User: Fold this.
Amino acid sequence: MFTSINPATGEAGDRFEELDADGIELALSRAQACYQAWRNSSLDQRTRLLNAIADQWEANKQHLAETAVREMGKPIGGALAEVEKCIAGFRHYAEHGPRYLEPTEVKTPNGHAVARWLPMGPVLAIMPWNFPYWQVVRFLAPTIMAGNVALLKHASSVQGCGALMQQLAQAAGATDGLFQNLAIKSDKVSDLIADKRVVAVTLTGSEGAGAKVAAAAGRALKKVVLELGGSDPLIVMPSADLDLAAKTAVTARVQNAGQSCICAKRIIVHADIYDAFLARFEAGMKAVKIGDPMAGDTVMGPLSSEQQRDTVLEQVERAQAEGARLLFGAEKIDRPGAWMTPGILVDLDPESDVAKEEIFGPVAAVYKVADIDEAIALANDVPYGLGSAVWTRDDAEIERFARDIESGMTAVNSLLASTPEAPFGGVKLSGHGRELGPWGMHEFMNLKAVMYGGGQPGD
Assistant:
């Protein structure tokens, strides 16, 4: 049994029955049967379904958003923005998906070959709670367009979100088995991966979860895409617009209460403008409005759970024990629920244990560096490589950062955010493989070469 806990109050909410062995078997059988038909569906059918799902999400936007608020605590404004992003994601693949699937013809010594993108089968997605809709949609939309079918193992705390997504897909006309939310716990995942009907796995989550899923997929010789943690740097150089850089850094650090893989977590500032930037950044962090996540003017609500809040506070304590100075904040708020204040750490030793970790909450570590070489070295001096952001008006510096920062993404003078048009993913312990755009859809497709010789049909 799963029970939703409202992180703003600590109160129990809806309860969801866990799927038993018979239920899992039925879901797998449905997925396989559906795939045999859906793989032969026309691109027009897939496009119509994606647009119909988007229409359902439009009609149920408020309900979707409020469900996310109750289950994981993000402010209603952020929840509505997430739903709108999902709608755009469905429509993106409806509009551009057919082009992503176009075959490519190449000449060969004896004729020509056609490279075709073909579906593979049921794909299992293991998804987290922090963006309970968007994390799923960036897998689900391309899966539908590709002609595959989708199985979702969602986080235990957001089973209401998972169930609602399945309901809306069915209301849009998705055939039985095309998208199923499996209300199961993590101990059932290995058996699912091993099942011959599951052809591939994608996971967004922690490094530890990624290692376990990758090991299970490796034993079964199945493709896996991993989007894991990040400790993203945000670098500010002397030519930057300091007001805009500081304002964006605040947003990057407190959106979703700092619970985003691509939130800027380490702020790296050139010595020449360190004091000026830090004053702006501190003022912005102190001004963050904390309150009822259902209120439209709330900027930051609670963290997703008291356990997550306490983990962040423990990291702050260890950082201070290792020599860091807490400039302000990072305090527990004495009220029911998973509340804390934003905070800033300075003078953190880059070689300390906490400096190498991901702080998954609204606490920033700010570093001072002497030049671009030191900035890049510090940016790369963690085991992660998901995203990064750089603030500079110098074209040569932009090129250096784009070339030398070890990450899957770099935002230039802007907030780093995923978008359906661009590839999303990381390097090092942040995972491998890509989501979104044609790249994400192609990850779980069979790139088949059809070879034509001279004088043969198709020549």
